[in-house]
Amino acid sequence: MQEELYGEIFAAEQEHWWFVARHRIVLHLLERYLQPNSGAPHKVADLGCGCGMMLLRLSEKYEPVGLDGSRHAIEFARRRGVTAKLGALPGDVPLSRESYDAVLMLDVLEHLKYDRASVEVAASLLKPVELLSHLNAILFAPAAMWRILAAKVFERDRARYLRLPPFNSVLRSIFAFERLLLGKVPMPLGLSFIAIARKR
């Protein structure tokens, strides 16, 4: 990724509908599927943590650590006061095996050359968790239309595209609403695939 994009992402993660709603969905799923822990907080690894906003949200309730292959991403994550380590899937993961209650790979797998090996490494970090799969559907059509329109209108001003308040608020609300439907309503197509898998 181009170096200048990390600064844009760092700013956008706090308010842009995609990031904010995705964080709400992930936190909702973790709350639903992680068993209550009477001792220390659950440990969560975020593989491909980017600029660290998900880690910051996680730190309100869990003990998170991030991993990213970009030094720029790690620097931005550390500005948020979260723990992030430099590394890359599948071969350079400086995290303890069988130590985490949850492992996140948010919009990561599709960018990896060795996807199967990466999933195997991610699984090796896990303690047991529950099972669920889900396809994000409600936002598919409006988000696709918005991206096509935005690419034409804001191709020279990407920062303005990331900041549009009315659209941002509406899309954030729709996307975040999906957390209430996960596992209850089948969704046949969508923007993202969410899987929570049990380690055997």
Describe this structure in words.
This protein has 200 residues and is α/β, with parallel strands linked by helices. The chain has one domain (1-200): Vaccinia Virus protein VP39 (Rossmann fold). The protein has helices spanning 3-12, 17-33, 53-58, 71-79, 115-124, 140-153, 158-163, 165-177, and strands at residues 43-47, 63-68, 84-86, 102-104, 132-135, 193-196. The strands form 2 sheets. It has a 4-stranded parallel sheet with strand order 3-2-1-4. The protein has a two-stranded antiparallel ribbon with strand order 5-6. Helix 1 (3-12) packs parallel to helix 4 (71-79) and helix 2 runs parallel beside helix 8. The longest helix has 17 residues, at 17-33. The protein is globular and about 45 Å long. The termini are far apart.
Quick overview:
Helices cover 42% and strands 12% of the residues.
Under CATH at level 1, the class stands as Alpha Beta
Provide the spatial order of strands within the biggest beta sheet: 3-2-1-4
Rg over CA atoms, rounded to whole Å, is 17 Å
**Tally of alpha and pi helices:** 8
Write down the domain tally: 1
Give the CATH H-level superfamily. Vaccinia Virus protein VP39
Strand content: 5-15%
Percentage of helical residues?
40-55%
Counted beta strands: 6
CATH topology label: Rossmann fold
